[in-house]
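Subject: Interface between my chains keeps coming out wrong

I've been trying for a while to get a sensible model of this assembly. When I model each chain on its own everything looks fine, but I need the whole thing in one frame so I can look at the contacts. Pasting all components below, labels as-is. Any help appreciated, I'm running out of ideas.
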Amino acid sequence: MKPENRWWVILFAIGAVLLIARWFVMPDGFGRAYVKAVPQAVDAENPDGRWVIYEQAPMADYLDAERTNADQSVYGPSVSRTLGTWIAALLTLFVLSFVIRDNPLYKVAESIFIGVSAAYWMVTGFWDTIVPNLLGKLAPGLLRDWAVPGLGDDQHPELAYLVPLILGIMLLWRLSPVGGWISRWPMAFIIGTFCGLRLMSFLHADFLTQIRNTIVSLYVVDNGSFDAWQSLKNLILVVGVLCCLVYFFFSLEHKGLVGNTARVGIWFLMITFGAAFGYTVMGRIALLAIRIEFLMDDWLWLIDPTNKRLLAEAAGFFLPLFGMG
Amino acid sequence: MKRTAPLLIASIAGFVMIVAYFIPRTQTWGEDVSVWFDILAAIAFILGGGNLLRVQLKKISDRRPGWAYAAITLIAFVVMLTCGLLKIGSHPNEQHPAFAWSGTYNQTGTPFWWMYEYLIVPLQSTIFAMLAFYVASAAFRAFRAKNVEAILLLGTAFVILLGRTAAGVFLTDFIPSDVLIEDPTFMQHLISTLRLENLTVFLMDIFNTAGNRAIMIGIALGTASVSLKILLGVDRSYLGSGED
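Reply #2:
Try treating it as a single job with all components included. I did that and got this:
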């Protein structure tokens, strides 16, 4: 066995031993999920519902229900969600293992992620866009009888939507080994539309709005007196925007007054990048904290920040001692 | 025809969007073209899925290194796609119980929901979370406070990181705050800004806003210029090399 593989085996063995030890320490085990059965009352003829949906429920509610009535069937453990919690926990560990080095477990997690993500976006695009916007316009009757019964009776086929259908088929032609130029037409449509949309939205929302927001008073009067603090803040803001814009203006050589102004602009930009860096790091660390909380709380039951188990377990343990529960 | 037609399509589609913005009578044109764009973008997802399928199948059939991972990708893709497209496990809409397909594809409890909840969400968030290690590691190796610019960048990042934590608030707790003072003076404002949590807000509201505004103005001008070049046919790079 290679030395690096030996280390992986040791690591997993330690993990397995810790999990087994964890199992014996807590009599209720860990990593389980509970659900509450909610019958769906669809109509008056069948008030008990035609089907049941299961909502996630805290363990405390399950234990309470069991204490009240041992034969209850409203709350119960969920096999699928428990399995999901375990798979999510293992995949989280697989991804985190990349911190040590690239390894087969990380590649497995990565492969699953690529597959499910691609499928997710395809399904979303199909049901949220193609079905209502394309099929709904071309064949509303068919859609009404099949998947969208609530579609209004006044909807009639709009033949103009044959254009995106044909362009879509031409786009899919890209998968064909011959006639690759055919997909240029829909590509040109996508690019042209995107350019038109972005041209206007950027000019309106970014260019004009940002300029308008930068035109602020440099002499602020508040309650009849000069507000030096707000004036200073406005002055820094205006000077900062102008200096940064001078830095971005490359038609003039950055020398003399222009060069000095551009240098001040660089200082402002560096502060901006520093802030962006700080926020990015904080965001990532927050995400990491959430993942670790998931491992410790939902999976291993080592912590309980929302008291969804500890209080219930304590009640289950202590109340019978006092003849309650 | 192979190159002129796409140029015309791009120009017409783009200018319809621009004209629709200015002339109310043509506003519906713009809305229709926008919906067509959404449809084509959704079909592009199908194209992406098809391409993924082709590439992975080729990898498996050629027994290239790592083909087993391609098989895992393929299985994950096919299972999730099937569950989503066929709405497996999905109940009908409450208003239309007689229509089996009227329910939503991502209902809680369906296999599609399960895979989103227990595969996509943890994998996506852990991959992004892992960047914390690499950002911190890269910063440690690359950042050196050797000039004014580097000091400003490092100092700002440090203040922002510290100012948003309880430790930052605790460190500068001795500096008087202007929050409870009625009508504070300039000096009181200035001194209060030295508190790390206030300094963070000051840097974000003034310096960061100034820098971001200039960047956004630059991006807007750049986008407008590139868009016009494409719509007027000056930039034709999206047509490819022109070999076919």
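Reply #3:
Confirming on my end. Residues 196-231 of chain B form the longest helix (36 residues).
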